[in-house]
Amino acid sequence: MKKLTIIGAGPAALMLAAQIDTTKYEVTLCEKKNTVGRKFLVAGEGGLNLTFNASLEALIAQYHPSAFMEPSLREFTNQDFINWLNKRGVSTFVGSSNRVFPERGVKPIEVLKTMVDHVASRGIQFQLNTTWTGWNTDGQVTFEKTGKTSEIVKSDIVVFALGGASWKVTGSDGHWKSAFENKGINVKPFRAANCAFEVPWNSDFIKIHQGKPLKNIALSFNGLFAKGELVVSEFGLEGNAIYALSRKIQDQLLTKKEVVIHLDLKPKTTLEVLKSKYKKSTRSKVTDILKHDLNLDRTAVGVLKQFTDKNTFSNPNLLVETIKAVPVVIKSAGVLDEAISTLGGVALDEIDANFLLKKIPNTYIIGEMLDWYAPTGGYLLQGCFSMGATLAKYFNALDE
Ligand SMILES: Cc1cc2nc3c(=O)[nH]c(=O)nc-3n(C[C@H](O)[C@H](O)[C@H](O)COP(=O)(O)OP(=O)(O)OC[C@H]3O[C@@H](n4cnc5c(N)ncnc54)[C@H](O)[C@@H]3O)c2cc1C
Predict the structure, then answer these.
(1) pLDDT in tens, 223-232
(2) Last residue of a domain, one of 307, 330, 353
(3) How does residue 46 score in pLDDT terms, banded at 50, 70 and 90?
(4) Whose CA is nearest to atom 4 of ligand 1?
(5) Are the C-beta atoms of 221 and 248 separated by less than 8 Å?
(6) Number of domains forming the structure of the chain
(7) How far apart are CA 215 and CA 299, in angstroms?
(8) Whether the Cβ atoms of residue 43 and residue 62 lie closer than 8 Å to each other
(9) Which range has the worst mean pLDDT, 61-75, 150-164, 331-345?
(10) Domain of 74?
């Protein structure tokens, strides 16, 4: 039997361990924390989106680069993942937004426990409190175990699944970057993705509207379009609609001091309908027309005022056009550690089509450690689980 060491015990690693052929491989799963899957549990705090209910083509299109993710997503689809969970007793349901959640009443820790119990029942060894530290001169991976000095784990094959670089408290701290760079591997700088963005609110606005939602809105930026909701924070804006634009906004912020995104406060109502409602209004104050005839709430009106000049505000046609495209100024991205996911990581041209590192023999990388992006909504976990399942299938077929 070949000795396979998986390092990092998040979703990508757990799915690999769940599907690897244990008659061919003696598998050890090393995790530096004293429990596994901490980020998965954090993901569960705000409502765990396990995957997204969409056709495979639509699902694949949400990933960047989608050509890289496509083979894994086809190998282990959203439906395969749902079936896999259902088979192990975890029921799921599709929410109104097409996000897939564990059945009501099933806690994220129970989902995790089901996965971990399944992996353990297959004879896979867990080594907790075991931090990977690098390679020795023979090329073997080295570890530090709490309370002990360094140790070597002899492995025929090593799979890294160390995660991205946000929410350090979960163990995904990106500290692995320098060790890989020292081996000549290109690791793209970490940047926040699916994160908050800074908006220069005026102080009067933010005093009143901090924490308030902007529901049923749409955002557009550079050809991207996202419906959803936003929350106004002291720092700026957060929420699924802006997360979906985060990669493109971040790319622009690399070269520009600020970027402008467009906010449609009434995506379900056409410009013509809004204009006609405005025209028919019998009220004299603009704010009253906005609130009572166009049904914009106080926060939406506040945002509109922030980004319109007096001339626009007093011109009905211009104002209604602006409701459909409020030019919101973005100054910067939120801090990396608070981001839901990470841009950057090991450059995709460092691995082959089977996740094998080209520069280090018998060494593979899966999960958020690699430089790919997906929006929130279950795509991130699906991507990680798909990579784990795909690599298991590849290993299982080796030497046949
Ligand atoms: C607040 C929040 C909410 C989220 N919500 C969702 C959601 O609803 N749906 C969704 O799809 N995604 C969500 N995500 C993203 C998702 O959780 C991650 O994309 C996913 O966990 C990444 O999986 P992974 O296996 O690549 O790595 P991780 O889950 O990050 O696991 C990596 C593991 O490696 C270990 N490790 C790191 N360094 C070492 C080392 N040197 N030695 C040993 N072990 C090490 C870490 O301790 C960690 O356990 C959310 C993330 C956050 C932060």
Answers:
(1) 999 999 999 9
(2) 330
(3) confident
(4) 43
(5) yes
(6) 2
(7) 10
(8) no
(9) 150-164
(10) 2-192+340-397
Q: What is the pTM of this model?
A: 0.96
Do 31 and 173 have their domain in common? yes
Q: For atom 2 of ligand 1, which residue has the closest CA? A: 43
Distance 36 CA to ligand 1 centre (A): 10
Tokens of 220: 């557009």
Nearest CA to ligand 1 atom 37: 162
Same domain, 223 and 253: yes
Distance from Cα 364 to the centre of ligand 1, integer Å: 17
CA 192 to ligand 1 centroid distance, Å: 14
Q: Is residue 335 part of a domain?
A: no
Q: What does pLDDT average to over the chain?
A: 96
Instruction: Give the residue, out of 33, 381, 382, 387, with the most ligand 1 atoms within 8 A of its beta carbon, to mutate for a pocket test.
Output: 381
E strands, the chain, are 2-7, 25-30, 51-52, 92-94, 99-102, 125-127, 130-135, 141-145, 150-152, 157-160, 187-193, 197-198, 213-221, 224-232, 236-238, 259-264, 326-330, 341-346, 363-365
Q: Does the pLDDT of residue 9 top 90, yes or no?
A: yes
Is residue 12 in some structural domain? yes
| pLDDT bucket at 149, cuts 50 / 70 / 90 | low
Residue closest via CA to ligand 1's atom 27 equals 163
Q: Check whether residue 68 and residue 93 sit in a common domain.
A: yes
Q: How confident is the model at residue 299 (pLDDT cuts 50, 70, 90)?
A: very high
Determine whether the shortest distance from the Cβ of 368 to ligand 1 is under 6 A: yes
**Ligand 1: which of 45, 141, 172, 243 to mutate, judged by most atoms within 8 Å of the beta carbon?**
172
